[in-house]
Design a protein that fits this description.
4-stranded antiparallel β-sheet; 8 strands; Outer membrane efflux proteins (OEP); 62% helix; transmembrane; alpha+beta; elongated; TolC-like
């Protein structure tokens, strides 16, 4: 219910004016993607498909009722040779034709499976298939969440880099204005002014490249969300706050969606094997039918005995028993193939568990390293800002060269970009850690 309210709020906000800038939190982006991205929609359709498959298998255990009818014309009746003794002509052979030129039947028949091992196994397998689709839909949602979160933070970092360049351009422009004033008054060299102009030109070029990168990454985010491309978005800075993570306990990877999906697939293969083995068991079914038959020298429809056409009914009830005896070892071969598939998926389960444990270990290590890097880069950026401030004051007082000032500006840009990159590394590792703990869905509840 809460997700529905959030989604309605996001949809209403995004539909008011596509050209208006929308503040988009990570939770908003994920909720929107889960409701609108094609992958998530198709996963829900797969669950619906599973329900239909269950209904199909269940129908095999229900009575099969059908109506039937036929109309036949016999231009030449088959004759039968019989002993004439029964007709008062002993010693003679009589050739007689039985039947009528026309006959028509209409009736209803029923077939009910009383015991069929394949049907019983199929019902269990169908229910397991539904669970398989549900787990697969959950895995698809987690993949959507992971892609959206990664793209979301990529956009944030590139925008932060653009902010750094904007500040750098602003500061360098101020320096250029100061040098130009000095040059106009004969207090500065033209080469210093030219170097500053080149610096500004380079910053503008890099800034344009970064703007283009932001656009491309925003488009990627919109695609992963299923959001219209003409929607303008903004990301609040609070989305990049560093939050503590539980790193002490190793999660149980056997509850991860990837592992559960393989386990469910293993169960389906076991049912497949049992379905094949059902060929060894006998089957029993109940049959019944009730029919009318009309016969005469003319087409029986709408005819009466006065026309030489007679109608009569007949019915039957029976049991059909089938006991398999020998199938040329075909069933045994199919069972062996099913065993081979089960052995293969057990190997996949072991490999998947090892891979999931590796993902958690790597994410944990990356988190720890990123925290150290963030602290170092934050202090480095702070120090670079102090160096630039002092160098700028010294340049104004003639105690530092232009080269020193430009180098200080470059070092500040590098330090700030390194800090935002460290933040991105942390956030991407955080997503992997949340994924390794099987808690990606919690990102929709922040």
């Amino acid at each position: 219910m809460r997700r529905t309210i959030i989604l309605m709020t996001v949809l209403l906000s995004l539909s008011i004016n596509a050209q208006e800038i929308k503040s988009l939190t990570l939770q908003d982006a994920i909720v929107y993607a889960l409701e609108n991205k094609a992958d998530a929609k198709k996963a829900r359709l797969q669950i619906e498909k599973g329900e239909y498959e269950i209904q199909e298998v269940r129908s095999r255990a229900l009575p099969q009722i059908s109506a039937n009818g036929s109309l036949n014309y016999n231009p030449i009746l088959q004759t039968t040779v019989i002993d004439g003794a029964g007709f008062g002509a002993p010693g003679n052979t009589i050739q007689a034709a039985f039947g009528q030129k026309w006959n028509s039947t209409a009736g209803i028949s029923l077939n009910q499976a009383l015991y069929d091992q394949a049907v019983f196994v199929g019902l269990k397998a169908a229910k397991s298939t539904r669970e398989f689709y549900q787990i697969n839909a959950q895995l698809t949602e987690e993949q959507v969440i992971e892609r959206v979160a990664n793209a979301y933070y990529q956009v944030y970092v590139t925008r932060q880099n653009l902010t750094v360049l904007d500040n750098n351009l602003k500061n360098t422009t101020k320096v250029k204005d100061i040098i130009k004033g000095q040059y106009d008054n004969g207090l500065a060299k033209k080469i210093d002014l030219d170097r500053t102009m080149v610096r500004i030109s380079n910053i503008n070029t890099l800034r344009q490249q970064t703007i283009n990168a932001v656009t491309l990454q925003e488009n990627a985010l919109k695609f992963f969300m299923g959001l219209p491309m003409d929607t303008r978005i903004s990301i609040p800075e609070t989305e990049f706050e560093i939050t503590p993570n539980a790193l002490s306990l190793t999660p149980d990877t056997t509850i991860r969606t990837e592992y559960l999906l393989l386990k469910k697939n293993e169960q389906l293969l076991e049912y497949q094997k049992k379905s094949i083995e059902a060929a060894y068991y006998p089957s029993l079914s109940l049959t019944g039918g009730y029919n009318f038959i009309g016969q005469g020298p003319e087409m029986p429809w709408f005819r009466k005995p006065s026309d030489g056409v007679y109608w009569s009914d007949f019915a039957s009830i029976g049991l059909n028993l089938r006991i398999p005896i020998f199938s040329g070892f075909g069933t045994r071969s199919r069972v062996s193939q099913a065993d081979n598939k089960l052995a293969s998926i057990k190997v996949d389960l072991e490999e998947t568990k090892l891979s999931l444990d590796l993902q958690y270990t790597n994410a944990k290590t990356q988190i720890e390293n990123s925290i150290v890097s963030i602290n170092n880069q934050k202090e480095n950026a702070k120090l670079a800002q102090e160096v630039l401030t002092n160098t700028n004051n010294n340049y104004i007082q003639g105690l530092a060269s232009l080269t020193d000032l430009l180098e200080a500006e470059s070092e500040l840009v590098v330090a700030q970009n390194n800090y935002t990159t460290a933040l991105l590394d942390y956030k991407l590792a955080e997503i992997q850690l949340i994924k390794a703990k099987g808690e990606l869905k919690t990102l929709t509840n922040k």
